[in-house]
Amino acid sequence: MDSTRPHILVIGAGWAGYILSQQLDDTKFRITVVSPHQTFAYTPLLASAATGLFFSRLAEEPIRRAHRHITYYRALATSADLTRKTVTCAPSVLQPDGRDVVDTENLFAVEYDIVIIAPGCVNQTFNTPGAAEHCFFLKTVSDAEAIKAKLLSLLEVASLPTTTREHAKELLHIAVVGGGPTGVELSAELTDLFDEVSKTYPHLAGLPSITIHDVAPEILGVFHAKLKTHALQTFKKHGVEVKTNSHILKIDEGALYTKEDGRIPAGMVAWATGNKQCDFVESLHGVSKGTRLGRVLTDQRLRMLKDDQSILENVYALGDAADIYDRGLPTTAEVAVQKAEYLVNILNSSPSGLVQSPSPFTYKQRRMVAYVGGTDGVIMGKQDWTGEAAWLAWRSGSLGWTRSWRRKAMILASWAWNLLGGREIARR
Ligand SMILES: Cc1cc2nc3c(=O)[nH]c(=O)nc-3n(C[C@H](O)[C@H](O)[C@H](O)COP(=O)(O)OP(=O)(O)OC[C@H]3O[C@@H](n4cnc5c(N)ncnc54)[C@H](O)[C@@H]3O)c2cc1C
């Protein structure tokens, strides 16, 4: 390998890191990617995967590709010395039972010329007792698979002759904590799933229920009022209860506890209340960070800022882990993708990757879509839409997120197959 080419180290292979790993010019740079899973997750597809709309492996893409010359380490970046241009990493070792174990005994260092920091965020539980232990999250394909397995298990336990109808009702109550787009879409997909499994589990008719809890006074906070009302009406029509101003006190096996209602039995509690910074970002000292989410701050060219607001040369940051100092951009794939494509253009267009004064990054806000179940959705853009047209736009948008034609074709085939034969979860 030609060691005279600048070495770019990409930390994280989510929406931002994956695009960089696949689109940076591998004839111009030596590229190393460090990320704890060897695949990248299409997060907008996870709620569908969790409810068996298609095989969950279709919601991910491998980082290693035959035609790409990159080095990939299945590891976590644990600390960085930005002066010495070195990042310390810990292997993330896949166990036979599917768990990842971080091997802190075998740390290794990676030196770089340019580092791009994109490790995303982790789930925010606000230290709610029992949340980390008992709740189901939806950030990775493994999370989606865990939800699917739990749903199937609940349906089967509820079907046993030893399970009373009363207990079956409790088991089939799914509580979703968080009324943002992720919680809303998961609830919508669950509604469709329960509707469909009523054919394969007719003895459970009328027992499944879904409740969305949010501490805020309304769900889908950023959407226009008319769209929020539409979402609420659709949920009501499908029997989804929405509890706003609901304060979760703790979670334990089989129940959540709220300040307002006390103990509420639930077979599964899905937690979708947003993001907080990962340990690696927290470990970065002497750099500028935002006050609300603790994201590292960059200038408008995505160069990371020191805590005195001067630029750290050859250190870029993007995705959910970073924000531009005066912007407050949302933590979305839209932002991560646009920033990654901007950085790819800058780095690929210069011989050394060191462009003196590229034009600043500008974010183009695209329409915002949320699925609310039963072929209904809400879209906020130049015009607001609801109903079947919004659902169709959402479905085609889901396909748009996938970056490989093979995945698109397989997802389309799964949808067609579901129409004919039902979802995998109901058939397995
Ligand atoms: C269920 C769900 C649905 C969503 N739907 C939408 C949508 O419809 N539209 C939209 O715009 N946004 C959506 N989002 C938000 C979107 O997924 C995120 O904004 C986006 O993933 C951020 O990209 P990222 O690259 O910063 O981080 P991520 O995609 O989270 O990737 C970060 C990567 O870094 C790795 N990593 C973490 N720590 C380290 C470390 N220390 N060292 C090395 N690697 C590390 C992680 O394992 C991961 O692979 C959704 C999110 C979820 C969870």
Description:
Residues 7-340 form the FAD/NAD(P)-binding domain. It is a single chain. The chain is an alpha/beta fold and 428 residues long. The protein has two domains: 7-123 and 275-348, FAD/NAD(P)-binding domain (3-Layer(bba) Sandwich); 131-273, FAD/NAD(P)-binding domain, CATH 3.50.50.60. 31% of the residues lie in helices and 27% in strands. The chain has helices spanning 15-23, 46-50, 131-134, 141-159, 165-171, 181-200, 225-237, 279-283, 333-348, 388-401, 405-421, 424-427; strands at 7-11, 30-35, 39-41, 60-62, 70-81, 86-94, 100-102, 108-111, 114-117, 121-123, 173-177, 209-213, 240-243, 248-252, 255-258, 262-265, 268-271, 275-277, 296-298, 303-305, 311-317, 322-324, 368-371, 377-380, 384-387. Strands 1, 2, 5, 6, 7, 8, 9, 20 and 21 form a nine-stranded mixed sheet that branches. A four-stranded parallel sheet has the order 13-12-11-17. Strand 5 and strand 6 form a beta hairpin. The model has no long low-confidence stretch (mean pLDDT 93). The site of flavin-adenine dinucleotide has 33 residues, from helix 1, strand 2, helix 2, strand 5 and helix 9.
